[in-house]
């Protein structure tokens, strides 16, 4: 059996996020979905897996059902597949942030960097003076990254602020491009850097996962595999499980 996997997020005001937790958990259980969803005042984030019918029904409910009342109208979604269920249980967790940076002044709902589609990403990387940042944790970077990317060598995303303060200068680094797994960390990271006075900040829309989905391997600047936070461990070009070819999934 093949399972459909959905990685999703959206920054959106959810003042009632605590009340949403139990109904959302029940909905996922009813649809036989497993994984983790995070809820906070600033939005939703997570990865879940189930049958194609179950995941499709969940997405319809998130986008247009009574639970979120149409607020998730700009949900960022990436789909992939798994040969076995990649999660052991279903969890819905309440958090202060859906991705933890720890800076109250950083609000992606107010301002973020310029989105760059996977189709335009390679062209951006060829521009002179561009600083390419991998915003992920060190163990993720070790598995794969883009050619020429700066590794901030952080253990957790909240350390990104210290890296920027110690290693980057708005007066010198005028054009910055950044990327992360699914795009959500770059929402916070780009907003933070703009607040610190950096002039031009770009980020890969949909993250590495969208790039690996859209860009043929022969045109790709990506080297290695992309770590994912489930039992598949890593994905490669075409969003196939690491060690599995696209022919294996045909």
From TrEMBL:
The Rhodanese domain extends over: 126-220
One Pfam match, by short name? Rhodanese
Q: What is its EC number?
A: 1.14.-.-
Q: Identify the enzyme class.
A: oxidoreductase
What's in the keyword line of the UniProt record? Oxidoreductase, tRNA processing
Name the SMART domains on file. RHOD
Question: Per the record, what are the reactions this protein catalyses?
Answer: uridine(34) in tRNA + AH2 + O2 = 5-hydroxyuridine(34) in tRNA + A + H2O
> Which SUPFAM superfamilies does the record cross-reference, listed alphabetically?
Rhodanese/Cell cycle control phosphatase (SSF52821)
Give the matching HAMAP family: TrhO
Similarity remark: Belongs to the TrhO family.
Instruction: Give the protein's biological function.
Output: Catalyzes oxygen-dependent 5-hydroxyuridine (ho5U) modification at position 34 in tRNAs.
Q: What is this protein called?
A: tRNA uridine(34) hydroxylase
Give the source species. Answer: Microvirga terrestris
